[in-house]
Amino acid sequence: MRSLVLAGGGMRVAWQAGVVKALSDEGLEFDHVDGTSGGIMTAGMLLSGQTPEEMAERWSTLEVRDFSSPLSVGDYLKGPWNLPGLADTDGILEKVFPHLGISPTKIWQSTTPGSFNVADFVTKTCVAVPHTEVDVELLAAGMSLPLFMPPLRRSDGIWTDAVWIKDANITEALRRGADEVWLVWCIGNSPYWGDGPLEQYVHMIEMSAGGALQAELEAASASGREFVLHVVRPAHPLPLDPEFFSGRISASSLVDMGYRDAQAYLDVRRPEGVPHEPGCTAMVDLPPGVRFTQRLQGELGGAPLTLELTVELPMPGDHGISPRVAGHLDHAPWGGRVPLADGTLSSSRKSLSFHGRARLDGEWVPVELTTPLSGDLDWDEWLRPRDPRLTVGGHATEVDVRLHDAIRTVLGAEPFGVHGLKERASMLARFGLAGPRIPSARAASRPRIRG
Question: Do residues 13 and 6 lie in contact, with contact meaning Cβ atoms separated by under 8 Å?
Fold first, then answer.
């Protein structure tokens, strides 16, 4: 029996939609789906019958500000020390769930068994609610982090987010008979410790979630319960929810990152899975750099074609991390959105090149974007490339960057690996003056195409 365990991660679980797409493309099917905290949304979409393609589309068109809705005026008049939370769940119930297609009625009818984890504050336990017994209020309660949203008070119970007890219920998967568990993890797990209340609130969640996961793995080992564990996680911590909420990263980019990260694991997975150790979710912090999204548009076979790339460019230095690229193609004859894997960038004196791969009609094909350079690579060449050519398998076409997309790329540039307004401004200035630095073509690895 194979179980899909979807851990939390706030609104950033848009990333999980890309993971689900990659697992689906690989032909993996699951006999049980479990969601905790933000992972409740991914589980709810799957058990509501959403396809991976629909999940990506729904996340990409979601208005992220719908997550937040204010309390009543009377609640705010109680003063900051008596607030039940900073906001309520109305936005989630009335806008987010409907847009994401999360429907308890459809969940009840799911032929795939599921479970949704909610904390019972009265007993201080995590309750795995069967998919046949959930309702929208319980689903929202399972995502209501203390301080940010009030709990659900029902009868004699107080229900809230289970993340402080556990952020992934492997025990429930094992109880149901799983001998293969796929854990999809997007909570940060790196050595970095940041200052400030938000960063340290997140660190507390990281410690609680990671500690509970290890306790579950140790308990299973102590009881002699053997199972194969696969862990899909980002190589580097994902941007925090405030960056998503403020538009400094988009749901579309997170979905593309999820597909890229899942494919990276699928390429190296072993039948025996990963060791049941704390390092199974470990990540490495990105060095300082800048992330931005570039969109190129053209036409192929009489139909519009769009290539969207999210690029993470570290500042030059001895950190051993090359530029990272996630993205997708959008072309109606190919079924719409086609995510990319193995994205790399390289440059020479004559050209800038992107290499990746995409799955078309069940087969991997190479994707290459080549842009001639008139001189040294600078931001003008990057933002308004000269005669870029896109090749996808045996298909080739000219693409370009529209003016409004170039403006969006500039305005959307976002520093990473730095903290505070001063460091962020300094990083953007450094990139603006120095221009992008891309490894030479000889140094960049090419994607491996496999059937």
Answer: yes
Q: What is the reported pLDDT for 444?
A: 46
Mean pLDDT taken over the chain: 90
How far is Cα 275 from Cα 192, in angstroms, rounded to an integer? 23
Q: What is the C-alpha end-to-end distance of the chain, expressed in Å? A: 26
- Amino acid present at 75: D
Residue 66: in which H helix or E strand, if any?
A: none
Dump pLDDT digits (tens) for 48-106.
999 999 999 999 999 999 988 888 888 887 877 788 888 889 999 999 999 999 999 99
Q: Among all chains, which residue has been given the structure tokens 């609680």?
A: 208
- Residue 342 backbone class (left: φ over 0; alpha: ψ -120 to 50; beta: rest): left
- Which one, of 238, 164, 239, lies nearest residue 201 by Cα? 164
Tell if the pTM clears 0.90, that is, is over it. yes
Q: Find out whether 256 and 19 touch, Cβ atoms under 8 Å.
A: no
Say if CB 7 and CB 161 are below 8 A apart. no
* Helix, strand, coil percentages in the chain from 3-state DSSP, rounded to 5: 35, 25, 35
Q: Is the pLDDT confidence value at 451 over 80?
A: no
